[in-house]
Design brief:
With 172 residues, the chain is mainly alpha-helical. The chain folds into 2 domains: 88 residues, no CATH class; 74 residues, no CATH class. The protein has 9 helices and 3 strands; from the N terminus they run ααββαβαααααα. Strands 2-1-3 form a 3-stranded mixed sheet. Helix 1 crosses helix 3.
Length: 172
């Protein structure tokens, strides 16, 4: 399939920042087979419903032709279903099990594959701690039982000088 025939969605509600875009670019460059496992989804007009950032990466990497398996056509959706798909495809359900990741996965590999690991970047960590030392704030939070349980679980995995700074990272 000709890559030039695929059109980015002009109403794509998702953005990707430079650092994450570079991580995606690196990922696709190193592991293009991933695209046949998670293809871009296009409508009957070849407009991307899912995979706008993957399309941008392929364009930047200089692809002209791509394997048909990298694209899935979805031409029987209503306009409402297209909108729903665009949002649902980009919503992340579930949470990371930080204990499993810490014990069973290589942290460097996870970071290289684009996973944001709290306080993994030591330089950023030190900068944030310095900013926190310069300014003190009061923070009062109320959670329902479910959210409280999740916040406490995430707090256990955050290296921080204070409860407040840890909470801020959890809530980001």
């Amino acid at each position: 399939m000709k890559l030039k025939d695929i059109k980015p969605n002009p109403n794509n509600p998702r953005v990707i920042r430079d650092y994450k875009f570079q991580k995606l670019k690196q990922s696709i460059s190193e592991f293009p087979k991933m695209l046949s496992l998670r293809p871009m989804v296009i409508d009957e007009n070849n407009v991307v419903l899912g995979g706008n950032m993957r399309l941008r990466v392929l364009q930047e990497l200089g692809f002209n032709d791509i394997d048909e398996s990298w694209v899935k056509r979805s031409s029987d959706l209503t306009e409402e279903e297209k909108k729903r798909f665009i949002i649902a495809d980009n919503v992340s359900f579930g949470e990371w099990d930080w204990d499993t990741l810490a014990n069973d996965w290589d942290v460097v590999g996870l970071e290289a594959w684009g996973l944001d690991i709290p306080f993994y970047d030591e330089e950023v960590k030190q900068e944030e701690i310095k900013e926190e030392e310069e300014e003190f704030k009061t923070l009062e939070l109320k959670f329902n039982a479910w959210d409280y349980k999740n916040v406490v679980a995430r707090l256990k995995h955050i290296d921080s000088k204070s409860l407040e700074s840890a909470l801020i990272k959890v809530l980001e």
